[in-house]
Amino acid sequence: MTIGVLVADDEALIRAGFRVLVEAAPDLAVVGEAPHGAEAVRLAASLKPDVVLMDVRMPVMDGLEATARIAADNPAGDVRVLVVTTFDQDEYVFEALRAGASGFVLKDTPPERLLDAIRVVAAGDALLAPGVTRRLVAEFVAHPRPGAGSTGPTAERRAVLAGLTDRERDVLLAVAAGRSNAEVADALIVSVATVKTHVSHLLAKLGARDRAQLVAVAYESGLVVPGA
Fold it and tell me: Which CATH class is domain 155-220?
């Protein structure tokens, strides 16, 4: 089946470049382009792409708000958002993950890796480049943007972990460490199917869309300490 991709970026040249790259792959197709977040939300609703390549900084509506709206409109995850970011500049990526983005790639990602990222997100394996994701999440938990208030662990955030079993906490720690299901299974000496079951329970208990949001919860709750 062909994976439908919506490209959201305010720069026409970047949109054109993504279109050429995506349509060169036999299993991918660009179904639409959006120059800002509001148009991305509208097109996501009408075109139902599998994946939205979402820039963060756009006029009219930024990628963060657009991601939150698309996630709210698609609670079952029928349309997934892959944020395209510059690591050193985009302060809103952590908030985008929390809002419902299924992962992110850097703008200097090699073309083949970007295509693989689209496939990974479309398949529901949300977290891409987990090592980089961990560093990014840790950075913005430790250093919130001005006016955002403290993002350190609070009683409320710690409370979300109260209902987890010891094994579920172990799995959550492993997911936050960027391990795949197979790697978690090897580390905990269980089957991959068992790990998938634990991940499903975590998603339900913590109200998370996918593994990307599980990473955010792990940091927000204080289960994982930035820089530790």
Answer: mainly alpha
Handedness of CA 150, 155, 159, 161 (dihedral sign): positive
CB atoms within 10 A of CB 79: 21
The first and second tokens of residue 40, run together, are 């991305």
Q: What residues does 168 pair with on adjacent strands?
A: none
Task: Give the C-alpha separation, 181 to 8, whole Å.
Answer: 31
Query: d(Cα 127, Cα 146) in Å, to the nearest integer?
Result: 27
145: helix, coil or strand? coil
Domains of the chain by residue range: 3-128, 155-220
Tens-place pLDDT, residues 72-81 = 898 777 899 9
Mean pLDDT of the chain: 82
Rounded to an integer, what distance in angstroms lies between the CA atom of residue 107 and that of residue 119? Answer: 17
Burial class (CB in 10 A: 0-12, 13-18, 19+), 194: middle
Nearest to 172 by CA among 152, 151, 201, 193: 201
User: For the domain 3-128, what is the CATH code?
Assistant: 3.40.50.2300
